[in-house]
Amino acid sequence: MSEPVTVDPPRPPRASSFKVPAAVARRVRIADRVASVVIRLGGVFVIIVVAAIFVFVGREALPLFRSAQVELLTNAPLPAVGSEMMPRLVGIDEYETYAYRLNSTGTVQLTRLDTWQPWTNLPALSLQKHPASSAYRSPSKDHLYIGTADGYVLLAQIKFSPQYTANGRTVEARFSEDTLLKVSDSGSRVTHIFGRHDTGGKAHFAALCADGKLVVGSYLEGEDTKINTLPAKFTVPVTAFAIDGEGRKLLVVTDDGKLHHWFLEDTLEKPFAVYDAGSPTRKITALEWIIGNNAALLGFSDGTIEEWFGVREKEDDVLRPYKKIRSFEPLPKSVTAIVPSGRDKGFLAASEDGTVKLYFTTSERTLATVKAAERIEALCYAPKLTSFLAVTPSQRAGLWTVDNPHPEISFKALFGKVWYEGYDAPEYNWQSTGGSDDFESKFSLVPLTIGTLKGAFYGLLFAIPVAVLAAIYTSQFMSYRLRALVKPSVEIMAALPSVVIGFLAGLWLAPLMERHVISIGCMILIAPVLILLAVSAWHHMPTRWRTRIPHGMELTVILPLLVVAFLVAIQLGPWLEGILFGGDFRQWVFNVTGQQFEQRNSIVIGFAMGFAVIPIIYTISEDALMNVPTHFISGSLALGASRWQTATRIILPTASPGIFSAVMVGFGRAVGETMIVLMATGNTPILSFSPFNGMRTLSANIAVEIPEAPVSGTLYRVLFLAAILLFVLTFAVNTVAELIRQRLREKYKAV
Amino acid sequence: MKTKRQLLLIATAFAVCLPLAAQEDAVKLDPALHEYKAVSGISGNLNSIGSDTLNNLMTFWVEGFAKYYPNVKIQVEGKGSSTAPPALIAGTAQLGPMSRRMKAEEIDAFERKYGYKPRLIAVALDGLAVYVHKDNPVKSLSMQQVDSIFSSTKKRGGKDMSRWGDLGLTGEWANKPLSLYGRNSASGTYGFFKELALDKGDYKSSVKEQPGSASVVQGVEGDLGAVGYSGIGYKTSGVRALPVSFRAGAIAPTQKNTENFSYPIARYLYIYLNKDPVKGADPLVKEFIKFVLSKQGQEITIKDGYYPLNEKKVVENMALLEE
Fold first, then answer.
1. Neighbours of A282 (CB within 10 A)
2. Which residue among A21, A372, A534, A714 is least packed, with the fewest CB closer than 10 Å?
3. What does A515-562 look like in DSSP terms, one character per residue?
4. SS3 A597
5. Cα separation, B313 vs B307, whole angstroms
6. Number of helices and strands in chain A (H, E)
7. What is the pLDDT of residues B271-283, one digit of tens each?
8. Chain B residues in contact with A319 (beta carbon < 8 A)
């Protein structure tokens, strides 16, 4: 600060009264300046610190919205053995040391990805007798499903095993044949094949023969092999099909753009449903499952890509008919290949003109776009999602590295309604972690934000009336002796750790409330009514009696009344519950509203949170009320207003800016409160404002989930984002509150 | 769907007739298991971070282990299986007890740091139990019913269930709401139950997520209309573990049914290790696992309420440790 700070010069003392010595005046001026600079510096420092926290938290959260980084590593001809390479099959092993391909006469060819040199050839013995005619690789574990020209299906796996030595890691490869099964009695050529393994290692496959027959089968060593030919005759040629990992669902696409859907366990006779997914002019050119084998991806001849999955629209849709859920940013030309990721809900899609795009389903994002020189025939997404390989018909291959840490996040995934897999409608949902790889993380912050506001709302609903009325009473009516006792006691409440309040609320209050909810409700009604009755009765009492109790000590009469109200409510509760609610209020709530009466509900939170917030609101409001200049009060009383009139018409409006900021500070505290909600609610991330169920707040959510969040993972960053949201929420509320307070202050300054 | 309903009827009929006394059979230890013999030169500190389901059992094992090696200090922390992989990766723990297998994503993260995969050792057997209040008259549940109770996705094709009447209870129970208790998402039990019982579906958001297995059981104990899931080791006298079945017959989570995996939600409990393929496992870690897989260790397993591994499984896992 270069400019000297200008401070209002101390007003010259009135000449008549007394003269301040010049030295003292100078000292005061200097002290004034120093203080002013220090205070300003302090203020600036606070702002810098808050901004720094904001920047730090923001930096943790910002990478969520970055696109994937994709870089071309190699673009060169891929070595080949013979000319008959299976066109659609290319794979990368888990350790990303080799690319492998298969030729029709039974050689698996491995190419080193670092040197791009042919490494070794593995013999596939069965294929030397039965030449391959089609092949498919499952997106994980290098399972191969190979159809032969003479009507067999070979199930095989390339097993890669790492060997560790002191010099590092080498990866060994082995071609392991599981079984060779005859699928066509007439020895018809298998033109197309698709397969999946389930978690127990059972293979399920579907194979299309040249005679138009579609065969489905399953194989597990030590179990009966099942091979069934579908009786259906396709009048239009089949272009693609997909079977799931349990052998339950089969999707078949025909050349006229129809999608046929079988439930294989139900019946093989006819499809469960046929959908008009495309049309004869808009053909379906590619079909794949997203990980989980539930949602299907359809690629069309016009470059569009759609996601379909089963939805229960009516209560009796037990087998869910498929439905178009969403479409993705289209490719420029016809879709030639779709390859799902084996780890998450992402996938790659390639187009006729060589464009490859990386998508993610939940967030509906297009994460990267690259372009090869020509049409892409085979595509492989490395198992660990760190690279992908695209092969063109001229046997050139491009290898791209992928850095894609947070594909599942988009603005819509965080704040919008998302149609999650297996759900019957789009929803706001928070379910961050599952136990398997095909779990679709649900990162909607909406239920958490609503939960935060709900908790604060019920807390304030209880705290504001109690705290503000108490502040008015203590400041205006209570005797000084009593006040000197009451105010510090309430302030001590603020020192109570919130974990203790939460603990008591969760383990003591919640079960108590569940048993006596009606009694407690009665108490809230009876106590004020009784007190009002007592007060008006007091007015009609002879003055002789009234003077017995000194001014400001009326409380001593009211306290016994509260005890009476308590006793009456305890007695009345069960009786009322019997008459009005059939003896069980919880059941009644459930029957009438369909909402469950949870033990750990918002009423409990209201009390507990109110308890934490009351001291803050009370103290600040009380101070504001006490600071109303005494000449206002004296003036009002002198003009004949009663104490009550003075309190409500003079003091309350004058102190309203202070009371308002008290409420807002209380609100800020309630929004940020963690331990009480963490311990006293079920932490259910539900989207409901009902007082009878719980909530999960942003802050409690951070506390619950941060231990399990891998550092720098998506969940970790989303939790930081939740922290920012919390910050923005309180910042917005406080700013608005400050503006309103300023205006109120302006308005009542004139009084 | 008619057949399914008939099967269900048969299942219920079975359940009614089946004497449930078999449930009380004492858990037997495979006599072929080897005694643990202490070796010399073992000392140091270990940290175990992970599963809450295994928390008590780990503590008991550590106590038993300390009898042989008084100089060894092992700290056990159990907040949920999902806390094990980050701890193993960061090196803050050498033992990572988990009640589910690691996800490929977690293994990837470990491999990125160390260049090899974490080693998986099965240490006990658990019949993940579906608990109800001890006064609840329900006899058994089919997996479809379990799915309909807990999931919002109902992947097993059932109808939504929100009151006990939907499960065939009558009288005052018919209209009583189902009150659901489950684990928080850091838990392996949460993930395992989701995968097997809900067929990879999603939980209803009204499931009260408890921070530990014990609090699930406690919640069920104190709530008449409650139903919750938790490891069999946390069973108390206030709750009942329901027989559960896929199709016909009610299968209780007994030792026999769990061992042959006819109980549909049986599982192994694991400890993950950081075992360098060149240098081998840390000798202290190795001795601890040897102890766990010994006769003494598996006796402790029984004492904590879980089921012991048989000889064959122990040999299999010892080989994984040694190789």
1. 13
2. A21
3. HSHHHHHHHHHHHHHHHHHHHHHHHTS-HHHHTTSPTT-THHHHHHHH
4. coil
5. 13
6. 18, 30
7. 999 988 888 888 8
8. 157
Q: What is the DSSP letter of A649?
A: I
Residues from chain A contacting residue B175 (CB–CB below 8 Å): 587, 590-591
Cβ A682–B209 below 8 Å, yes or no? yes
Do the Cβ atoms of B195 and A598 come within 8 Å? no
Q: Which of B83, B223, B276 sits opposite A599 (nearest CB)?
A: B223
Find the angle CA(A516)-CA(A517)-CA(A523) to the nearest 5 degrees. Answer: 90
Closest-CA residue of B relative to A515 is B223
Question: What does the pLDDT read at residue A493?
Answer: 86
Integer Cα distance of A271 and A269 in angstroms: 7
Q: How confident is the model at residue B203 (pLDDT cuts 50, 70, 90)?
A: confident
- Please report the DSSP string for B133-159 in residue order: ETT-----EEHHHHHHHHBSS-TT---
**Which residue in this structure is represented by tokens 């006779």?**
A269
- CA gap A574, A516 in Å, rounded: 8
Within 8 A by CB and 6+ apart from B5, the residues are none
Residue B97 C-alpha, separation from nearest chain A C-alpha, in angstroms: 14
The pTM assigned to this predicted structure is 0.85
Query: Hey, are the CB atoms on A707 and B186 less than 8 Å from each other?
Result: yes
Q: How far apart are CA B207 and CA B193, in angstroms?
A: 13
Q: Is the pLDDT of residue A223 over 90?
A: no
- Around Cβ A331, how many Cβ atoms within 10 Å? 24
As a whole number of angstroms, the distance between CA A335 and CA A355 comes to: 9
Question: Closest Cα partner for A117 from A104, A89, A142, A98?
Answer: A98
Across the range A53-74, mean pLDDT stands at: 90
Task: Copy the structure tokens of residue B294.
Answer: 């010994």
Query: Could you tell me which of A349, A338, A337 has the C-alpha nearest to residue A289?
Result: A338
Nearest CA in chain A to B106: A710
Q: What is the least distance, in Å, from the CA of B89 to any CA of chain A? A: 9
Q: Which residues of A touch B179 (CB under 8 A)?
A: 596, 598-599
Cβ neighbours of residue A169 under 8 Å, at least 6 residues apart? A95, A162, A163, B115, B116
H/E run at residue A116: none
pLDDT at A346: 92
Tokens linked to A132? 């391959």
What is the C-alpha separation between A148 and A191, in angstroms, rounded? 8
Question: What tens digit of pLDDT does each residue of A90-127 get?
Answer: 899 988 888 898 888 888 888 888 888 888 888 888 88
Q: Give the CA distances from residue A280 to residues A192, A257, A328, B144, in Å, rounded to whole numbers and listed in that order.
A: 21, 6, 21, 41
Which residue is associated with the tokens 């489950």? B182
Cross-sheet strand order for the sheet of A355-360 = A335-340, A346-351, A355-360, A365-371
Tokens of A730: 């309180």
Helices and strands (DSSP H and E) totals, chain B: 11, 12
Q: What is the ipTM of this complex?
A: 0.78
Residue in chain A nearest B196 by alpha carbon: A435
For helices A714-749 and A446-476, give the axis angle rounded to 10 degrees.
Answer: 30
- Following CA atoms A645, A651, A657, A663 in sequence, which dihedral angle do they give, to the nearest 10 degrees? -70
Q: How far is B309 from chain A (nearest CA, A)?
A: 20
Q: Is B179's CB within 8 Å of A596's CB? A: yes
The tens digit of pLDDT for each residue in B10-57 reads 544 444 444 443 444 578 888 888 888 888 888 889 999 998 889 889
User: Distance between alpha carbon A189 and the CA centroid of its chain, in Å?
Assistant: 49
> What is the per-residue pLDDT for A2?
41
What is the residue-averaged pLDDT of chain A? 87
Which of A140, A315, A684 has its CB closest to that of B206?
A684
Could you tell me what percent of chain B has a pLDDT over 70?
92
Question: What is the least distance, in Å, from the CA of A433 to any CA of chain B?
Answer: 6
| A343/B105 CB distance under 8 A | yes
| Cross-chain residue pair A164–B159, CB shorter than 8 Å | no
Q: Do A434 and B223 touch (CB under 8 A)?
A: no
